[in-house]
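Here is one such protein, fold included:

. . .
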Amino acid sequence: MPSKLKPSSLKQLSVRGILNKFLMLFPPVFLMLPIFCHAEKPKETPSITPTLTVTLTQAQQTILPFKISANGNIAAWQEAIIGSEVNGLRLTNVLVNVGDVVNKGQLLAEFSAEAIEAELNQAKASLMEAEAQGKEAINNAERARTLQNTGAMSSQQIDQYTTASDTARARVEVAKAALATQQIRLKNTKLYSPDSGVISARSATVGAVIGTGDELFKLIRQARLEWRAEVISADLPNIKVGMQANVAAADGSSFKGKVRKLSPTVDTQTRNTLIYVDLPANSTAKAGMFAKGEFIVGQSSTLALPQQALVMRDGFTYVFGINDSHGKKIAKQIKVQTGRRIGNLVEIVSGLAPHQLLVATGGAFLSDNDLVKVVSPAVTKSRAKQ
């Protein structure tokens, strides 16, 4: 049988039940304290300290040129190959080297001439012999013709003397031609420059036996160089002969060139065409050097800003304008579209009013709606000196 509870135990159980029900209906006060404390906390006031001290600028109406950019190689205007015109002769003297400036007709190299001089003397002797025999044949033919009407000689004998005279004359001409050939060969033992220019390559070696047509030197004619620029075919109608081109070589030098001619064909693989630009004679460019440049095809008036006023973010270009709100200067981020770049100036194609006040420098440290302090450039400079 279950034990009977005492009256005191029953009283304790009833009190506990009442407390449990009370706690279920009303949460403890200490759990509610954080809520009341949070609700009663005062709101923080935004900082009124300027984020940055800035100077102002405005987009200026500026005349900027239209340019077509191109890349290409620098090459010789014309390169002459100087070779040997004699066969089997030994090279005895080489008078120039790579990089030497030569004049037209200047002696470049010499060959051994002993064998050709001997053959020349032989040709002279053969000519003298042919002339002597020819003189005798001509005299015999003349005497025979004087006896033609006397009947002392037959017509056949007279014809024989006449034929011998003509043959002798032909032999004299052959001997003269042989002599002229040897004289030309002797002249070719001295190699002369066909034009003025710069020696760009040399394969001539003293002591080598040279064959006919062997290359000995390469000459950049008149020391003229050209820039062979590659441009897309769509830009071709904008480029004209005589147009100026600004060229920058790989060594850092820059100079102005002039369009000499346009290639009549377009490359079927790249769809590019070559523009031949004459370079000035005093340029430091070298043949084979890579260069980039621009063709000036016109100009127009447009809005432009210094590069320092632009901010690049997430692949877009922005500037910061200044708005006046209750006496405070607020920086406002403005998205713009840029175009041509000439030196430190950048064309603003769209997104900007002509007379809008903009942050001149330091925009990279600003965010949209930042409070800024505006000072004049003179104040900024004086602070920088301090």
